[in-house]
Structures are given as C-alpha cells and as structure tokens.
Amino acid sequence: MSNGSNFMYVAPDVAPSETFSESFGKIGERMRQAGIANQQARQEAQRLAAQNQRSLMAQRNSQYNALLNVGKNTENFSMADLEELNDLKMQSLEKFQENPDLFANLLTNLTTHYNMGKKHAQLKTGAFSAADEYIALLGNTRDFRGPEGMMPILSAEDFQTKNKSYDQMGEKTGERFTDPTTGLEMDVFNYYNPGSLTTYDASFRQKHSGAEIQRVEDQNGTVKLVAIQNGAPIDEQVVSGPLIFYPERGSGKYFTPQTINIERTTPEDFLSGRGGGINHVVTNVRGQVQAKEITEDQARVILAESVSRVFNSPSGTGMQAAAVDMWNQTYGEQYGQFNPEIAETYQLQTPLQMFTDTFLDLANVSYKEPASSSGSTRQSQFAEDSKRYSVKTGLPDAFVQDQQDEKRGVLYQNMDEELQSYGTNTQELIEGKRVHIHVPHQKLLYRDRKFENIEVYLDQNIIMLEKADNYEGKESSRTTSNRWSPERLNDRYWSSLPEKKYDIIQIYDAQGNPTDAMNDLMLDFAKSYGSDPQVNENTLMQIIAEKFSQQ
Fold first, then answer.
1. How many C-beta neighbours within 10 Å does residue 312 have?
2. Could you give the CA distance from residue 363 to residue 397 in angstroms, rounded to a whole number?
3. N or C: which end of the chain has fewer CB within 10 A?
4. Are 182 and 227 in the same domain?
C-alpha cells in the first residue's frame, strides 16, 4: 500500500438534533392548539352573542310591557279617552314589533294621552269632585257657594247632558289624523262646549253670525275658526281636531251649573223690559187690536202665553220670586207650604196666575176708538206728513251723493261689510223696494240724534235713518291737505269726526221679534208727534206694513 495515494476523508458520526418526524409533530401540535383556541373563541363569541340576544330580548320584552302597562289605572276616565287610549295602545304594540326603534316616541305619545285622560278624570275623582259637587247641589245636601243673589239651575236632565259631554267631549267626524312622528292614527272630533252637546263650531258661528268666518288648518290636525270684521280678525277658536288637543279638557265648566239672578222682577218691571220682558210683544198685539186683526181676548191669550213661557224658563226666576211674594202677601201664607194642586183644591190662584193677571191689567190691550179728523194741530200735522210717505225702489239720492262725494266717500269704504253684517248687500238695496217716511222739522229724536228721513227696506230687514245735522264733522286747527285720507280720520285732525249721513238698524231679530233698536225707533217716532191720539208706539210698524202691502 503506497503512502497517501488511496486516503479518503470520512466525517464524524454525529446524531441529528431533531428528526423530521419530530419537527412535523410539533407543527401538528401547534395547529391543534390553534384549533382549540379558535374553537374557544367561536364558543365565546357565540356565548356573547347569545347573551346579547337574551339581553336584547329582555329589553324588547321590557319595552313591550312598558307600552302595554300604560294606563293601568283608568278609573273615572271618559269613554272617549278610554277608547282612544286602547286604540293607540294596540297600534303602538304593532308598530313597536315592526320597528322597535320607535319605542321612545310611542311611549311618550301613549303616556301623554294617558296623562291627559287622567287630568280629565279628576272632574269625577275624590269626594269634592266637580261632578259630586253638582250632585250634592241637586240633592240639596250642599249649599250653593256662588255669588250672592245668584242661584244655580239644576236638574237631573242637565246633569245627564253634562255627563254625556264629559264622556264624549265631541262628535267624531269620521276622519283620522296620522301623527307624523309615530304613524299613529287618531280620530278627529268636533269639540263640544264643556257641559253641553253644542259644538264649538256651531256656537262660534252663532256668536259671529254677521262676520266672515275663515277655517285655518294646523299641521297637528286641529282646525281653527277666525271671525273677520271689516277685514280684521276679531276672534278665533279651535273647534276640531284629535282628542288630545281638546282646548278645555278637565275644565270645571263641565259640571259647573248655570246661575241666574234671583232679584225680583215685578209685573211692572217685566212690562218695562226687565227680566226678559216682552214689551215688544205688547206693542205688536196692541197694534193688532187697534187694526182689528185680533180681539182683546185674543191679545190677552197671546200675552198670557208669552208671560208663562218666560216665567217657566231659566230666566224667569226673578218673576217667580216676585210672584211668590205677591201670593204670600195676598193669602197671608207661605206658598212654599203648598203646591199648585193644593192651591187649585182650595180655589186659590197660583203665583203664575196672579203675576199674569196683574201684568195683563198693566199692559192694557183694550181697543181705543180713533179720534175724529177735526183734532188738534198735531193731528193735522201727522195727517199732512203721512200724505208724503211713498214707495220707491233703490237707494236714496242723498245716500248715493254722499257715498260718491270726493271727500266724504271715504267714510263708506267698509259699507259692503256693514251691510253683510245685516245679511244684505248694496246690490239688493239698489234693486229693493223702499218705503220713504219723512219726519219734517227735525222732530225725530232717536237715541239723542236728530233724524228726518226713514228709509225702510222690509225685505232686507233694515232701516236707513238720514241724519238731520251734525254729521259733517269739524276740522281741527291743524292744517293739512289730506285731512280726508283714511289714516287721518282721527282726533288729531278733527275736532269732531265726520260721520256717514245714514245710520242702519235691523228691524227684526232671528226670532222674528222687533230688535231693541226698532222698538226705540217706534217709540221715538210716536213721541215726535206728542199727544196726537192717532199716533202710538205701534204706528210706525203699521205704516210700514200698510205701504209694503201695496202693489
């Protein structure tokens, strides 16, 4: 063997630090542990999700119950409030299930309705409630604590009406209002006046029958009426809408009895016009007797019926008190110890009969023979004046001239509105039949003003009175070229303001009776002819009737 020619290096035999199998096993272990960790994470997430779901469900259940439990105590609630609260609760539960995010708004809405109903229910809650107060007064178990000299008007029928008004609060219109915040639908009501079954709408229109009425709708579903006079609003009233906006919910007016003055109204007072007096009826029947349209007995029957109607009405308590005084004085007894049946048994007059007989004697509807034509100068003057009474058509010339005057015409800017307040207009007067009655020499003094011409439009139910003087106005010392402009028709520019030449009065009221203004004019017309036996307080009405009966 030669040295070195066949030498080969062999590495040392060293054992490996980690086998492949071992290394792979470690990777598997790490993967296994990672899997376990992921599983644990998923399980924790699922646990948290389940926990959150349970919490959310618990919250939803709590919210649902909160809606459901609104209004657990509805004692003494009105029927209208109960119906609406139950309806809104059912709607709220449905909408909550559809959209739980509405919960806060729905709960606020329901709670508000409930609180409003609770406020209304206080009228019947407690020993001293408004309803119990009325019942106590009705049963004479409690004294009336109102103003001295006043007494309440009480009856079981009136309490039933007030109770019905309390329960209903209005008439359903059949319309529904949708709350834009929640989508809840609510019934729309024509609201009642508290304690009555008369709607605000009806009473407001009656109160302002001569004015223009405008309807104004609000975004909350309410409707307001506005009365307009001469282009300007003079009054307003919310008349309808959802129940929650009812203006007088919980008002004591629901069970507050009406009161009347119990001051005595004697037959003399009643004849003069106090206590609901019927002096206009007396005037009418006297004229009918004089015209031989009815007999004296028929006239007395008419007056007796009128007296009885007022006597037995709520405004007749003063008459009743005076009649009892008369009865007690006549018979020396207290009428309160008797009743009409007992009085009839003993053939005693009732207080009403005594009052009526005395009134009829005072009214004196006996026929009076007309004086002869050879009477006084006054009588001759009336005869002469009456010859000039005439039937015409259209507006008086003096009215037209005044209205068209370059300066004074400004006084008539609101003439159409004024005529509308009396139920007529200029065109009707232009086309209408007119009776012209001239009272010369400024003898007619009506309400402290002198007039000389009476223009009667019976079909339009008005009279135009032409002033005799003091309508031109007196200028102030302040100089101006625009004194007649509307903004300067005031005390700054005038010592006394100019007036329209004509005043307007209404002849008959809504019940067909002469108005107070007409009664005053009839009386003042009669006075203008002094003691002339041919002229009485009914003469003017007779002239009007006669002239308008002519073809």
1. 11
2. 41
3. C
4. yes
Beta bridge partners of 504: 464
Q: Which domain holds residue 462?
A: 377-549
CA-to-CA dists, residue 503 to 71, 211, 216, 499, 539, angstroms: 61, 19, 34, 9, 21
Asked whether the beta carbons of 388 and 546 are under 8 A apart, the reply is no
pLDDT of residue 345: 64
The C-alpha atoms of residue 51 and residue 501 are separated, in whole angstroms, by 91
The total of structural domains in the chain comes to 3
| DSSP per-residue letters across 250-274 | T-GGGTPPPEEE-----HHHHHHTT
- Compute, in degrees rounded to 10, the torsion defined by CA atoms 133, 135, 141, 142: 30
Q: How many CB atoms lie within 10 A of CB 393?
A: 10
Residue 223 CA to chain centroid, in angstroms? 14
Helix 20-68 and helix 79-98: axis angle, to 10°? 170
Q: Is 154 exposed, middle or buried (0-12, 13-18, 19+ CB in 10 A)?
A: middle
Pairing of strands 223-229, 212-217: antiparallel
What values do phi and psi take at 187, rounded to 5?
A: -65, 145
| Residue numbers in the chain where pLDDT is lower than 70 | 1-25, 56, 147-150, 259-262, 273-277, 332-346, 369-380, 441-442, 477-481, 550-551
Query: What is the structure's pLDDT at 266?
Result: 86
Name the residue among 417, 427, 414, 416 with its Cα closest to residue 457: 427
Whole-prediction pTM: 0.44
416 & 536 share domain? yes
Q: pLDDT tens digits, residue range 45-98?
A: 777 777 777 776 788 888 888 888 898 889 999 999 999 999 999 999 999 999
Domain boundary among 326, 341, 363: 363
Q: Count other C-beta atoms under 10 Å from residue 342's C-beta.
A: 10
475/492 Cα distance (integer angstroms): 10
In a domain, 71, yes or no: no
Hey, what amino acid is at 25? G
| Pairwise CA distance, residues 131 & 139, whole Å | 12
The amino acid that residue 28 corresponds to is G
pLDDT for residue 4: 52
The domain boundary residue, chosen from 254, 276, 291 = 254
Q: What is the pLDDT of residue 376?
A: 45
Residue 116: inside a domain, yes or no?
yes
Q: Are residues 469 and 322 in the same domain?
A: no
Q: At what angle do helices 103-121 and 79-98 cross, to 10 degrees?
A: 170
Angle in degrees, 0-180, between the axes of helices 79-98 and 156-168, rounded to the nearest 10: 10
DSSP 432: S
Q: Is residue 45 part of a domain?
A: no
Residues 339 and 441 reside in one and the same domain: no
Is position 311 within any domain?
yes
